[in-house]
Description:
By secondary structure, this protein is an alpha+beta fold. Helices cover about 55% and strands about 10% of the residues. It has 23 helices and 11 strands. Strands 3-4-5-2-1-8-9 form a 7-stranded mixed β-sheet. A two-stranded antiparallel sheet has the order 6-7. Strands 10-11 form a two-stranded parallel ribbon. Adenosine-5'-triphosphate (ATP) binds near residues 45, 120 and 125.
Amino acid sequence: MPATVQPEKQRRFALEVVATLRRAGYEAYWAGGCVRDELLGRTPKDYDVATNALPDEIRRVFRHRKTLAVGAAFGVITIVGRAGEGQIEVATFRRDDTYSDGRHPDRVHFSTAEEDAKRRDFTINGLFLDPLENRVIDYVGGQEDLRQGIIRAIGNPRERFAEDKLRMLRAVRFAASFGFSIDSETFAAIKEMAPQIVQVSPERIAAELERCLVEPGRRQAAELLLASGLLEVILPELASAIVHNPVAWAENLSVAEKLEQPTFALALAVLYWRLIKPEDSEQVARRLRFSNQVRLTTAWLLHWRYMLTEAPQRLWSEVHPIASSPYIRELLAWGEALVAAGRMDPEIMRWWREKLAQPRELWDPAPLVSGIDLQTLGIPPGPIYRRILSEIRRRQLDGQLTTKEEAIDFARSQLATQGDR
Ligand code: ATP
Ligand code: MG
């Protein structure tokens, strides 16, 4: 969804879509996640509409609008709104038939509102709302579970997870993101069936995992992943390290909880700390098809984490590569969470903030000399350039060389000693 969507306009558009279908003589409701979010007082990310109109009929009713028929085979027509209104997916009531691959329904049958509610994953996601009369239509007991804060599979949880294994991870994500608990039978089914999560593509697992960990409920998500046995299948390296070092895990959870809107990479690094080495984190990332960005950032954060604490005692030339890295914001966010969790001396973060609040040229000055300067001195190009330049840079950052003249004198002296060799 483009960032230009304006929630108020989007909501009005979603209302209009329902009203238009209703005027044309069809049944139409808001459905699923948007109803849940409305009832929880959250702003829905997007609105889905369910109707008894067939795809062709939906297109006819909205012929004055731009529509997309990408999902038409599943009964889904997308209505494209005007600026700021976003898009609304209008789906014909349907029942999904057997899932022989555990991922996609083999066939779709157009059906009734009740059956459409019952094919959905959890009771809180199975509600309809008539936004014109502000009436909830509840075939699955979703309102009660919403009130009580329970994630409960619709129907028999084992059957529902057998149809689509990804639902096990969705249960964890919804529980964590709303601070709900998972109904005991639903949770028992997840524990039993967790090994089958391998049937879901790594990309989809990664996407759910990311949503679990970037949201504020990440601590609960991590605990549920472990308790359900899903972690053991998705991240066996982490699960077995936790068995050997439960103290580190408990500490990581308490830090993870304090992160504020972390990237996926940072949330992972915080949970991995002292349990998964940087190289192993790269292995995990490759297996689960995390983006290169996530893979490299996680490994970088784990690799340099010690510098976060040690920087105030180190030479600036040692700290500089970390301070000037594009990943430093995330490392500092880790530091703030450590302080918030009472696991780091606040003075350390004050030191960092003060250091980096200075004008950049003070802590990341332009190099005093370049290869061209060495050439002018008549030094023949070669590996010696890099050695001399990096030695000059080191001394510059540590305040031993402050002017270009000093740097050039130093280069000459180096050349003399090199010549002696
Ligand atoms: P969010 O958009 O916040 O992730 P959501 O509930 O809207 O939450 P979507 O993936 O957008 O989730 O799906 C919309 C609705 O479609 C859900 O509320 C649910 O009713 C149904 N649904 C989605 N995925 C599944 C699934 N794997 N199995 C059954 N029903 C599903
Ligand atoms: Mg949604």
